């Protein structure tokens, strides 16, 4: 059994997180329940910042809020002195409501709407990560309307492939994101932006993938980009102030996942940048990174109550939980794998393997295959680890199942930060059918 952060088994054999007994949490807040280990999030954020500080490099560490966004999480990111990536008007609105300093907000996305762009320019956010020519034009128009100068990075696809599942790879040439490097789209975008009075081109962005366990991909991306950066410096007189290398730092979901300490990614990448800067006699840019998963992923645990079972002799033993693909879409979407334990009987002898099924009307709604557990009963509490990233943020109302609540735990205290949806919430936007008079 691998426990993350402050998670431990207490004297009565219960899983405890942040000094709080998970059995008590389930009693008080119900299940399914997302529990976040706040001190583990602090620890991760600090590790990124310390790595940059040790190397004496100017930096911004932006939390990719799509991994898990709610008002309290954004406020925690602010407390931790992180910047914030948003990819929609909704994530930006959350940041505004949370009182997050707009100058540290970066706006991403391959199809920001004119309304979203307007909203963000009005809010005076720190930077747009521009994805395409359509957006450049929209931004220019918005900047003129609001009489603002807008800072931008250009997102590029350097054609570096990180070793990961296809669905979550975005650094290949054949990607919906960013300006293509090889075909000269980036060169044209740089020229366009340098020519535009309303835009301040700070630098270049790339994001090579997700759940990455090696530094090689980042180093290759830096290498590839610098051959271009050098030529832009000569041919376009473009001085790179910011190099944003995205996120994608891996975490341990299951045995066999071997992520590096976050500082190692930072160190290898910066050394690669320094090498090229020296080689080409260029100035050292500020380095920005955008961790999502690695900040909140292993800090999150989902608690479920067990219900029905189905034993097919010599085939499989299904064990159903009171949630599923509505609170964790990743197994269905990416064949993502997880580990879990019985939170109320954590010291009991493991006896058999169960396959953990969700409660949705969908055969694909399976959370874990062949999980070793003690003999389990209905009403036992199942804890699934490492659900902090892309769990709640991808939660949905399939089968009209209300989305769970979220609690933060730290130093023996629990705080509810997102309330459970109610049935009333589910029908809140529904309007009754118009009844017509029969002739
Ligand atoms: C999703 C994403 C991130 C965060 O990725 P993680 O794998 O969660 O670290 C960072 N930058 C961009 C552009 C992204 O799309």
UniProtKB/TrEMBL annotation:
<feature type="binding site">
    <location>
        <position position="390"/>
    </location>
    <ligand>
        <name>substrate</name>
    </ligand>
</feature>
<dbReference type="InterPro" id="IPR022644">
    <property type="entry name" value="De-COase2_N"/>
</dbReference>
<comment type="pathway">
    <text>Amino-acid biosynthesis; L-lysine biosynthesis via DAP pathway; L-lysine from DL-2,6-diaminopimelate: step 1/1.</text>
</comment>
<feature type="domain" description="Orn/DAP/Arg decarboxylase 2 N-terminal">
    <location>
        <begin position="40"/>
        <end position="296"/>
    </location>
</feature>
<dbReference type="InterPro" id="IPR029066">
    <property type="entry name" value="PLP-binding_barrel"/>
</dbReference>
<keyword id="KW-0457">Lysine biosynthesis</keyword>
<keyword id="KW-0210">Decarboxylase</keyword>
<feature type="binding site">
    <location>
        <position position="390"/>
    </location>
    <ligand>
        <name>pyridoxal 5'-phosphate</name>
    </ligand>
</feature>
<dbReference type="InterPro" id="IPR009006">
    <property type="entry name" value="Ala_racemase/Decarboxylase_C"/>
</dbReference>
<feature type="domain" description="Orn/DAP/Arg decarboxylase 2 C-terminal">
    <location>
        <begin position="37"/>
        <end position="388"/>
    </location>
</feature>
<feature type="binding site">
    <location>
        <position position="362"/>
    </location>
    <ligand>
        <name>substrate</name>
    </ligand>
</feature>
<comment type="subunit">
    <text>Homodimer.</text>
</comment>
<dbReference type="Pfam" id="PF02784">
    <property type="entry name" value="Orn_Arg_deC_N"/>
</dbReference>
<dbReference type="InterPro" id="IPR022643">
    <property type="entry name" value="De-COase2_C"/>
</dbReference>
<keyword id="KW-0028">Amino-acid biosynthesis</keyword>
<feature type="modified residue" description="N6-(pyridoxal phosphate)lysine">
    <location>
        <position position="66"/>
    </location>
</feature>
<protein>
    <recommendedName>
        <fullName>Diaminopimelate decarboxylase</fullName>
        <ecNumber>4.1.1.20</ecNumber>
    </recommendedName>
</protein>
<dbReference type="InterPro" id="IPR022657">
    <property type="entry name" value="De-COase2_CS"/>
</dbReference>
<dbReference type="InterPro" id="IPR002986">
    <property type="entry name" value="DAP_deCOOHase_LysA"/>
</dbReference>
<comment type="similarity">
    <text>Belongs to the Orn/Lys/Arg decarboxylase class-II family. LysA subfamily.</text>
</comment>
<feature type="binding site">
    <location>
        <position position="330"/>
    </location>
    <ligand>
        <name>substrate</name>
    </ligand>
</feature>
<feature type="binding site">
    <location>
        <position position="293"/>
    </location>
    <ligand>
        <name>substrate</name>
    </ligand>
</feature>
<feature type="binding site">
    <location>
        <begin position="290"/>
        <end position="293"/>
    </location>
    <ligand>
        <name>pyridoxal 5'-phosphate</name>
    </ligand>
</feature>
<keyword id="KW-0456">Lyase</keyword>
<keyword id="KW-0663">Pyridoxal phosphate</keyword>
<dbReference type="InterPro" id="IPR000183">
    <property type="entry name" value="Orn/DAP/Arg_de-COase"/>
</dbReference>
<feature type="binding site">
    <location>
        <position position="248"/>
    </location>
    <ligand>
        <name>pyridoxal 5'-phosphate</name>
    </ligand>
</feature>
<dbReference type="Pfam" id="PF00278">
    <property type="entry name" value="Orn_DAP_Arg_deC"/>
</dbReference>
<dbReference type="GO" id="GO:0008836">
    <property type="term" value="F:diaminopimelate decarboxylase activity"/>
</dbReference>
<feature type="binding site">
    <location>
        <position position="334"/>
    </location>
    <ligand>
        <name>substrate</name>
    </ligand>
</feature>
<comment type="function">
    <text>Specifically catalyzes the decarboxylation of meso-diaminopimelate (meso-DAP) to L-lysine.</text>
</comment>
